[in-house]
Amino acid sequence: MGYDIERFVGYVNEGLLCSICRDVLEDPLQAPCEHAFCTACIHGWLVHHSNCPEDRQVIDVSLLRPLYRYMKNDLNRLQLHCRNREYGCEMVCSLESIDRHERECEYSQIPCSNAGCRVQIERRNLDGHLAVCEYRSRECPNGCGYTILSAEDTQHNCVAELRTELELLRSEMICRVEEAKHEMESRLDSQRRHMVQKESILQNEIEELKSQMSRMMSDVRSLMAAERQHRQELEQAELEKREL
Prior knowledge:
The structure is a single chain. The chain is mainly alpha-helical. It is built from five helices and nine strands. Among the domains are: 100 residues, Zinc/RING finger domain, C3HC4 (zinc finger) (Herpes Virus-1); 40 residues, no CATH class. 50% of the residues lie in helices and 10% in strands.
């Protein structure tokens, strides 16, 4: 379906009207015979027919093309009233920008955002409605902290809600304690493994040092023995020298 022609300001060229619904073209397509249609209108027509509704020439969906650029420009320049005119909106703008305006129009009827509320309200009045909506969420006036979402919730049992909240807090605390305990145990195990590993490395280093020290002592004893042998040989040579 096209745009209601009654919404437009001034004269609308006949060539910019849909040949099926006779309203101003919306999302237009053009047949090879140059007759133009709203996309929804011509697709619906071709479900049951195979020809142009104006001159009965055979057409197919594959033959439909976008509107000529000059016609598209003429269409976009048309001026029309906002669809919320009946609610008080006095905006008149081009067809090209009407969708953008209507998406943001303060007079648009929109649903209340509170779950369960079926009220349709103008966008400009939404904040005021939300402040008094019986489905708005608010805390219990008795101070138990319960969130009231509907009129039925005002009859809730504060003691029961507090008990439920307490149980939830206790469960959450137990879970957090268990998580902290597991994390601490994991850290202790990691540190213990690190200490054992480090101890093993130090033990190996000590054994290696002992082995090196043992070899050094053996070398020292060998050197001392060689020195005594050398001294004895010198003494013997000295005696032989004296005898000669």
